[in-house]
Amino acid sequence: MTPELSVVVPVYNEEESLPELFRRVLPVLESLSRSYELILVDDGSRDRSLALSLKFREKREDRVKVVELNGNFGQHMAIIAGFSISRGKMVITMDADLQNPPEEIPRIVAAMERGHDVVGTIRKFRQDPLFRKAASKIVNAVTNRITGLRLHDYGCMLRGYDRRIVDLILQCRETTTFIPALGQKFAVNPVEITVRHSERAKGESKYGLFRLIRLNFDLMTGFSIAPLQAVTVTGMTVAVMSLLFTAFLILRRIVLGPEAEGLFTLMAINFFLMGVTMISVGIGGEYIGRVYQEVRQRPRYVVRQVYQEEEEL
């Protein structure tokens, strides 16, 4: 029987959080009084996450599936792998670290029952370090401006998707993607609701500074060519300003004669132009890198094994 609800949880080195997740998530799903499936996607964990997931599955083999990936392919590819075997009419994604409580799932289901095909979430009273909250606000604002989307919290993965949206996402074959933004692109009647946010009690965040920067570059370059257009406009502006400044220096030399006092000014301008050039090359390289990844046509992820009931295979 096709379940009404699928819950997809990417798991990467979360052995400390999983027992509490298992204890809390099933009662929530049972309270909905509807058929469901819980899909745990192990993204190449190096701890006991996979073993704990399989042990948990033994208790509810009719409701729990475990997908074992053949390495670490990233959170979003793990979710795509979960989408590919999900069967629910409504699909909810959530992290395994319990910073977004599973007790919020009924509110997402209720919003989808009101006709919304994508239910985004905004973390209320976010329990993260100040610098991460400040950086998140900046990234959200810049990304919305670049991509034309209207998401208030790109980082919260507790979200709901209609089956149609999930199928459309699965049709996209790019090797790097950002699922919340992709879902928003395809949505006809999206909505955002506030959800509780808890401080991480166990384990460590998998998103360090470099990985967050990398993810946001993927987001901006994957949904808009605005950065390239901005580079072009900046280059034209700097070229015009440089031409005007050169004309000024020529006139100054004619009127006042040669002088060396402007040497450091010229050096400062030269360093500025070098910085603009390096940024421009970097942004262009981001897009070229994405093209390179696509033309290789390597698998986005590799499933080693799916643990589910035999009749579903």
UniProtKB/TrEMBL annotation:
<dbReference type="GO" id="GO:0016757">
    <property type="term" value="F:glycosyltransferase activity"/>
</dbReference>
<keyword id="KW-0472">Membrane</keyword>
<keyword id="KW-0808">Transferase</keyword>
<keyword id="KW-0448">Lipopolysaccharide biosynthesis</keyword>
<dbReference type="Pfam" id="PF00535">
    <property type="entry name" value="Glycos_transf_2"/>
</dbReference>
<dbReference type="InterPro" id="IPR050256">
    <property type="entry name" value="Glycosyltransferase_2"/>
</dbReference>
<protein>
    <submittedName>
        <fullName>Glycosyltransferase</fullName>
        <ecNumber>2.4.-.-</ecNumber>
    </submittedName>
</protein>
<keyword id="KW-0812">Transmembrane</keyword>
<dbReference type="InterPro" id="IPR029044">
    <property type="entry name" value="Nucleotide-diphossugar_trans"/>
</dbReference>
<keyword id="KW-0328">Glycosyltransferase</keyword>
<keyword id="KW-1003">Cell membrane</keyword>
<feature type="transmembrane region" description="Helical">
    <location>
        <begin position="230"/>
        <end position="251"/>
    </location>
</feature>
<dbReference type="InterPro" id="IPR001173">
    <property type="entry name" value="Glyco_trans_2-like"/>
</dbReference>
<feature type="domain" description="Glycosyltransferase 2-like">
    <location>
        <begin position="6"/>
        <end position="166"/>
    </location>
</feature>
<feature type="transmembrane region" description="Helical">
    <location>
        <begin position="263"/>
        <end position="283"/>
    </location>
</feature>
<keyword id="KW-1133">Transmembrane helix</keyword>
